[in-house]
């Protein structure tokens, strides 16, 4: 019987930095996802946009060596940007600029987005576009606006779960 293709989890910048800096509020869930990858059931996709944002660790050391080592894991897949991702990034950036959408901005604020987070920034739009393009099952993030957009739109439109790591999300077969 052929083996199932591993699911793709896309990580954003806060996930990588959370792991690299051993941030206790993030590391347990991220290690759960890594365990799923080590078992062959999933892969972690790291968009080019994320790699460019992982610059400095909490101890002020450069992050490049840790990033290079992480990218060498057999279950980590670098996700390159394509022209299609570029165009989708632009579309998502325009669509989720909440400054001209007061009702949507109010819902975002009520869901926990800081009131000053009024638009999807270019890098976040590119990360989301990358997850959509590569048909990820999950975009792992702690970003409140991405989580809101994910729950309100992305999950229904693309089937991608957007949020922090959650072991209950993973209904893998034994």
How would you portray this structure in words?
With 174 residues, this protein is of the alpha/beta class. It has a single domain (7-168), classed as 5'-nuclease (Rossmann fold). Helix content is 49%, strand content 12%. It is built from 8 helices and 5 strands, in the order E-H-H-E-H-H-E-H-H-H-E-H-E. It has helices spanning 13-20, 24-38, 48-53, 64-71, 83-95, 102-110, 122-133, 144-158, and strands at 7-11, 42-47, 76-79, 138-140, 161-163. It has a 5-stranded parallel beta sheet with strand order 3-2-1-4-5. Helix 5 (83-95) packs across helix 7 (122-133). 32% of the residues are buried. The model is unreliable at 168-174 (pLDDT under 50).
């Amino acid at each position: 019987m052929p083996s199932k293709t591993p699911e793709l989890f896309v990580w954003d910048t806060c996930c990588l930095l959370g792991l690299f800096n051993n941030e206790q509020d993030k590391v347990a869930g991220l290690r759960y996802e890594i365990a799923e990858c080590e078992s062959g059931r999933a892969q972690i996709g790291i968009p080019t946009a994320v790699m460019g944002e992982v610059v400095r660790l909490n101890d002020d050391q450069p992050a490049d060596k840790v990033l290079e080592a992480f990218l060498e894991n057999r279950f980590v897949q670098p996700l390159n940007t394509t022209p299609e991702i570029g165009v989708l990034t632009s579309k998502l950036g325009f669509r989720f600029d909440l400054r001209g959408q007061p009702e949507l901005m109010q819902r975002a604020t009520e869901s926990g987005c800081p009131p000053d987070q009024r638009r999807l920034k270019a890098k976040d739009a590119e990360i989301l576009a990358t997850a959509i393009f590569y048909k990820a099952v999950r975009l792992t993030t702690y970003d409140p606006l991405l989580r809101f957009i994910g729950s309100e739109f992305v999950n229904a439109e693309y089937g991608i779960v957007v949020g922090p790591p959650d072991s209950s999300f993973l209904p893998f077969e034994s």
